[in-house]
Design a protein that fits this description.
Helix 2 crosses helix 13. Strand 3 and strand 4 form a beta hairpin. The protein has a six-stranded mixed barrel. It has a four-stranded antiparallel β-sheet with strand order 2-9-1-10. It folds into two domains: 179 residues, no CATH class; 218 residues, no CATH class. By secondary structure, it is an alpha+beta fold. The longest helix is centred in the N-terminal third of the chain and has 33 residues.
Length: 418
C-alpha cells in the first residue's frame, strides 16, 4: 500500500510541490510553538513548596506629612509599637488563622532580592534572599523537603538559622545532607541551615530558584519610620477554608478598617494571592505571550486545514476518472477513502523527516528558551510527536470530505464522461 502511494505521489510531484513546501514550513513553526507549550506545561506541572489557597495580602499606607491629620512621633519606636499592634489586631480577627510579615518575599512578587553564600569562601552561589517571620511557613504551608511536619521549618528559622530551598541545598552540598551545615555569606556572616524546604519558584511558569529564608526580626522595626513599615513590609494572612473571596475582602475591610487606622497608618487594600498571581502574569507578559501563541497556532492550523482541503479537492476533481476506474475494476469506496487520506499522511511523514532535522538543529543551537527547561531528548521528542499528531489530525479532517465525495462517484457516470 505504501509503495503504491509513493508511486502516486511521485507521479503527481508537481501538483504536490506547493503543499509539501507549506507543510514543511508550518511543521517547523508549529513545532516551535508546541515546544513553548511543552516548556510552560512542564514548568506548571512542577509544584512549588508553598500553597496560596485561602491566603491574602493586606497593604497599609500612611497619612501624608502635609496633611493636618498627620501625627508627629518623637521617635520611630512609637511607630513600630503601633504597627505591631495592628498585626495583633489582624491576628485576632475571627476568620484569620495566621499572620506573617514579609519583605519583598511573598509568592508571585515581582520584586527580587539576591545575595551570595557558600560552604566556604572559595565558591559563592547566588540565591534569592527571602526575609520573613517564622509564621510565614504556617501562612503559606511551606512543605519541608523530606518531612511532613511544617512546624519543623517554622521552628528552624531563627536569627542564626536559615531555611534553604532544595536547589540551593543541592548546589551547596551535592549528594550530602544540608541540614545542620554552616554556610558563609559574602559579607562573612555565618549561618546554620536549620531546614530544607521543597521546590521554590517565583511563579508557576518560572524555573526552580535557589532561595533561602532569613529571619525578619521585629526588633529591627524600631529603627524604621512609618513609611518604611507601611511600604516595605507585606502583611500576609491565611483565613479559614471555604470563605467566599470577594465577600471576605469586603467584610474584612469594613470590620477591621477602624481598628487598624491608628496613628498615621491607614488600610490601603486587601488582595487575594490568586488575584496577585493573575496580575503578575498580566504585567510580566506571560498571559499575553500565551494568548499570542495560541492565536498564532490557531492561524497556522486554520491555514493547514484550508490548504489541505483545497489541494485535495482540486486533486480529487482532477483524478475523477482515475477514481471511477478504480471503482469500476473492484475497489471499494472505503479503499478509495483510505487511499486519499493515506496520501495526506504519507506526504506529512515525508515532510516531517527534513523538518525534524531542522527542528533538532534549532534546539541544539539553543534558539529556543532554555531558562525554564533545558534542551533534552524528551523535550525535543515530545514537541516533534505532538506537532506530527496535531498536523496528522487536521490533515485527516481536511482530506476526509473531498475523499468522501470522490468515493461516492458513480463509476458508470465517470467512465461515460471520460
Amino acid at each position: 500500500m505504501i509503495h503504491h502511494l509513493l508511486k502516486l505521489l511521485w507521479k503527481q510531484r508537481r501538483q504536490n510541490a506547493w503543499i509539501v513546501a507549506e507543510l514543511f514550513l508550518v511543521f517547523i513553526l508549529l513545532w516551535y510553538i508546541m515546544d513553548y507549550f511543552t516548556t510552560i506545561g512542564y514548568a506548571n506541572s512542577v509544584d512549588s513548596a508553598y500553597d496560596i489557597k485561602d491566603t491574602y495580602q493586606v497593604r497599609l499606607t500612611t497619612v501624608p506629612q502635609s496633611s493636618p491629620n498627620y501625627i508627629h512621633h518623637e521617635n520611630t519606636e512609637e511607630a513600630a509599637a503601633l504597627y505591631l499592634s495592628i498585626i495583633e489586631r489582624i491576628r485576632q480577627y475571627p476568620q484569620v488563622e495566621e499572620v506573617c510579615l514579609i519583605q519583598n518575599s511573598s509568592p508571585y512578587n515581582p520584586s527580587y532580592m539576591d545575595n551570595q553564600m557558600g560552604k566556604d569562601s572559595s565558591k559563592m552561589v547566588q540565591f534569592q534572599y527571602l526575609p520573613v517571620t517564622p509564621s510565614y511557613f504556617d501562612v503559606f504551608r511551606v512543605r519541608p523537603l523530606n518531612e511532613d511536619d511544617r512546624s519543623s521549618l517554622k521552628d528552624a528559622l531563627t536569627e542564626k538559622n536559615i531555611v534553604i530551598s532544595r536547589k540551593l541545598a543541592e548546589e551547596l552540598f551535592p549528594g550530602e545532607q544540608a541540614k545542620g551545615r554552616s554556610i558563609y555569606m559574602k559579607n562573612d556572616n555565618s549561618f546554620r541551615i536549620g531546614g530544607v524546604c521543597g521546590i521554590l519558584k517565583r511563579d508557576d511558569y518560572s524555573r526552580e530558584e535557589r532561595a533561602a529564608y532569613f529571619m525578619l526580626p521585629t526588633s529591627y522595626f524600631k529603627e524604621w519610620n512609618e513609611q518604611q513599615l507601611a511600604w516595605s513590609l507585606e502583611i500576609s494572612i491565611r483565613v479559614k477554608p471555604g470563605l467566599n473571596k470577594q465577600k471576605f475582602i469586603e467584610d474584612f475591610q469594613r470590620d477591621i478598617r477602624e481598628q487598624i487606622n491608628i496613628g498615621n497608618f491607614i488600610l490601603s487594600r486587601v488582595d487575594s494571592y490568586d488575584d496577585l498571581r493573575n496580575r503578575l502574569y498580566l504585567t510580566n507578559g506571560v498571559t499575553d505571550a500565551i494568548r499570542y501563541r495560541i492565536a498564532f497556532m490557531a492561524f497556522l492550523i486554520f491555514n493547514i486545514f484550508l490548504g489541505i482541503i483545497g489541494t485535495f479537492w482540486f486533486r480529487n476533481e482532477y483524478r475523477k476518472s482515475e477514481i471511477g476506474l478504480r471503482l469500476a475494476v473492484g475497489s471499494t469506496r472505503r479503499q478509495i477513502l483510505q487511499m486519499m487520506i493515506g496520501e495526506g499522511w504519507l506526504l506529512l511523514s515525508l515532510v516531517a523527516i527534513p523538518a525534524a532535522i531542522i527542528c533538532i538543529n534549532i534546539a541544539k543551537m539553543e534558539l529556543i528558551d532554555t531558562n525554564v527547561m533545558p534542551v533534552t531528548f524528551f523535550r525535543v521528542f515530545a514537541g516533534l510527536i505532538s506537532t506530527y499528531l496535531l498536523m496528522a489530525f487536521f490533515i485527516t479532517l481536511g482530506a476526509w470530505y473531498p475523499a468522501y465525495l470522490s468515493s461516492k462517484i458513480a463509476p458508470a457516470d465517470t467512465l461515460r464522461a471520460e
